[in-house]
Amino acid sequence: MPRREPKPSSVHRPEHAVLAALLRELRLAAGLTQVEAATEIGLDQSSISDFETGDRGLELLVVRDLVHVYGGDWLAFVAELEARLSAGMKPASSLLRKSTLKGPRSRKV
After folding, report:
1. Domain residue spans in the chain?
2. Where are the alpha helices (DSSP H) in 1-109?
3. Which residues contact 56 (CB under 8 A, 6 or more apart)?
4. Between the CA of residue 67 and those of 33, 37, 64, 92, 94, what are the distances in Å?
5. For a tag site, which of 10, 20, 44, 60 has the least CB within 10 Å?
């Protein structure tokens, strides 16, 4: 019998960390504690903590519930998530000033 590959889990994808961070930012912007957020959707505080630290996967409808509890606009949330995911990781060279990309600079010692 052929060996099956494990199912990909969103928890192990870099995008998951972006989603978790955005949810945490939204909760904090709303001025809610993890306990308050959890109570609103019928979970315990440790679930919210696990979502925000990336230790637990997030289901789409739970994310939607959290966004609504935080007073967020669902479509705006998704648009912001997409913008952050599209930005991706920037290479270190993008942090350099333009003049340093033209060639080596002489160093004063």
Report:
1. 10-88
2. 14-30, 34-41, 45-53, 60-69, 74-87
3. 11, 47, 50
4. 14, 10, 5, 33, 33
5. 60
Confirm if 93 and 86 have CB atoms less than 8 A apart: no
CATH number assigned to the domain covering 10-88: 1.10.260.40
Six token digits for residue 14:
């870099």
Average pLDDT across the chain, whole number = 85
State which amino acid sits at residue 66. Answer: L
pLDDT value for 6: 55
The one-letter code for the residue type at 63 is V
pLDDT of 105 over the 60 cut: no
